[in-house]
Structures are given as structure tokens and as C-alpha cells.
Specification:
By secondary structure, this protein is of the alpha+beta class. Among the domains are: about 1-125, no CATH class; about 215-280, Winged helix-like DNA-binding domain superfamily/Winged helix DNA-binding domain (Arc Repressor Mutant, subunit A). The protein has helices at about 1-5, 10-20, 70-80, 95-110, 130-140, 150-160, 165-175, 185-195, 205-215, 235-240, 245-250, 270-280, and strands at about 40-45, 50-60, 85-90, 215-220, 225-230, 260-265. The strands form 2 sheets. A 3-stranded antiparallel β-sheet has the order 2-1-3. Strands 5-4-6 form a 3-stranded antiparallel β-sheet. A hairpin with a 5-residue loop joins strand 4 and strand 5. Helix 10 (about 235-240) packs across helix 11. The radius of gyration is 34 Å and the shape is elongated. Residues about 1-5, about 20-35 and about 270-275 have low confidence and may be disordered.
Length: about 280
Amino acid sequence: MENQQKRRPISSTEYLEMGASHSSRDLPTRQSKHLQNRYVVYLHARKSDGQIFYVGIGSEKRPYDFKDRNKFWRNYVNKYGEPSVTVAFKSLSLPEAQEIERFLISLHRRVADGGTLTNITAGGDSNPMHEESIRSAMSVAMKGRVFSDETIQKMKMSAKGRPPTPQAVAATKAKHAAGWNPMHSDAAKRKVSKYWTGRARSDDQKKKNGIAHSKPVEQLDVNGNVLARFDSQRQAAKAIGCTAALIGMCVGGVTKTAAGFIWRRAHPFADNDNAVALKRHNEK
């Protein structure tokens, strides 16, 4: 009972008296520009009975600015009318304002916690996306939702050029280091399979797939001199007049040559491949 009496909600009138007696001289001085004593803690209350329904922090103008409020605040004001404003504390540094805001929200409690406040977060520098209840609610709301092509394009344009956060990069690297690959999961394979089932690939798509999966090769004479480069084994076979399988066997090390030439994969480590190809040929 004693704890409940100590933590009873305070009326807006009492907050006003507390704010009037508050002085920035009672607070620690800060040198940093970020911590200048320019913040206030304010309350929004119902005019009919003074019931507090919102606790916030900001500049001196923020308490009287009713724009950019969350939907719960807007619904409350639409039902009960414009609120009365009480600036409870003035001339605070940001950390001090955040600490007081967190305390007052925990004192009056949010509607989701059985209280009267329309605040979404627990106050201070907390992020609503870090709370399990918010994440669960959004997950349920988004599940099964189908976006239009226009919405998808807008989302792509919004994310285009946006660098990932250091935390996201570190998390992705850790997943890959542990052997994670999204295309290796059963869910990803089923999704790709479902997408292509019954779908006819156009000639342009086939050509793109061929280019994406083709492996460039280089033609060398028996002395190791590069004679030509081809985008694929099939292209080389047509030019030389043999089969792609023969060239593939030479590239793979099964045979020494194909059609009288040495063949290798074309990639940045050409010199090393050239030495390997010559060694295979000399061992013949």
C-alpha cells in the first residue's frame, strides 16, 4: 500500500506547481551543445476532468503543436476534444528530460499496460520497434498482405541508395560465416519452384540465363600462347568445329588437349591456369 501511495498519479495542477518551482540552477551544468538545457517535459490532459493522457518531451513549442501525433493520440482528441497543456518541467538537458519522461510514463502507464496514456513507447530514447508487443502486432497485420506494383516500386525507390546500418552488415556477415544462404533454405527453394512452375521462359530470358550460366574459356596453343577467348564452351566449339563436351573435358583436366589446342577457364588468374595447362600438356 505504501508503494502504491508513493507512485500515485499526480494531477496536472500539481505538475504545474512543480514546474513553476523548478529551476535549471538545480540541475547539473552541461557543456555539450547536444545537452543544452532547452528541453521541456509536458502533459496533455482531458479538459473535462484533467485526466492526463499523454506525456512528452521537446522544445518549448512542441507542447502546443498538435501535428505529427500518433494515431492513438488523434483518436483520443477526436473523442474528447482539444487537450489542456501543462509544461511540467522546463530548462532540462536531453538526458534529464528523457529520464523524467520515462518515470512519468511508468507512473501513469500506457493504455496497453492498463493505464491512461496514449504514448506508444516507454519514453526517453526507446524505440517502439524494440518492443515485442509492437513487433507481434505488426507481424500479424502484415501477414498475407499483398502489395500493388505501384507500392512495390515506391518501396524500391525509397530504399534505393540507402546504405545498410553497421548492425545489419555485421549480422549478415555473421550469418554467412555460419554457412547461411537464403537460397539454400527449403522455403526459398519452394518459393522459386512455385514461381517458375507453368511459366514459359521467353527467348530473351533464355538468352539471359545462358549468359549468366556460361563459363568463358580461352584457347591456347601448345606453347601456352593465348589465341582466342570465347564466352562459352559452346561458342568455342562452333568456332573450332568440335563438340563442347571435348572442350569441357580438356578444361576439366580429363584430356590434355581438344582439337589440338589447350583450353582453360578465362578468369583473372590466367597466368596460373596457363602454367597448369602447359604442365598437363608436357606430361603427355
